[in-house]
């Protein structure tokens, strides 16, 4: 494996909680009212330093979506998913955007979110904003 080329972000940054690789800027947040299997998740316009998994159709709270899991390039941890396509018209605003699971990332002030143990069961869910 060659040397990893990482993008460094300036400002309020969300980073991988395992290896501190920068993932997204605070100002790229579209919505904080999403949920995943570990509790809260945020929708971002853009993220950096991630690799994409295979596309798959996933049933979410707001209908069927085509998504790809996204992984930190620094350590390979899954950090969220990307919306490739939304099947419901009202959910099209999510297309091309990214979810970061709050539990998987460290916040701008270094804060870590503890998993909500009594959160949703049965995989990843996206809430309507
Ligand atoms: Zn990482």
UniProtKB/TrEMBL annotation:
Domain Yippee intervals: 12-109
Alphabetized Pfam families for the sequence: Yippee-Mis18
Keyword entries, A-Z: Metal-binding, Zinc
A molecular function GO annotation: metal ion binding
The keyword Metal-binding appears for this protein: yes
Record flagged with keyword Metal-binding: yes
Membership in a protein family: Belongs to the yippee family.
Protein name: Protein yippee-like
Organism: Dendrobium nobile (Orchid)
């Amino acid at each position: 494996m060659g040397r990893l080329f990482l993008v460094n972000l300036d400002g309020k940054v969300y980073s991988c909680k395992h290896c501190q690789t920068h993932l997204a800027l605070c100002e790229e947040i579209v919505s904080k009212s999403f949920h995943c299997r570990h509790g809260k998740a945020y929708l971002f316009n853009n993220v950096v330093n991630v690799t994409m998994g295979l596309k798959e159709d996933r049933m979410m709270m707001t209908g069927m979506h085509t998504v790809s899991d996204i992984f930190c390039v620094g350590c390979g941890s899954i950090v969220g998913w990307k919306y490739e396509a939304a099947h419901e018209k009202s959910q099209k605003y999510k297309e091309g955007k990214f979810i970061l699971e709050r539990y998987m990332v460290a916040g701008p002030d270094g804060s870590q979110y503890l998993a909500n143990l009594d959160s949703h069961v049965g995989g990843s869910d996206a809430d309507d904003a």
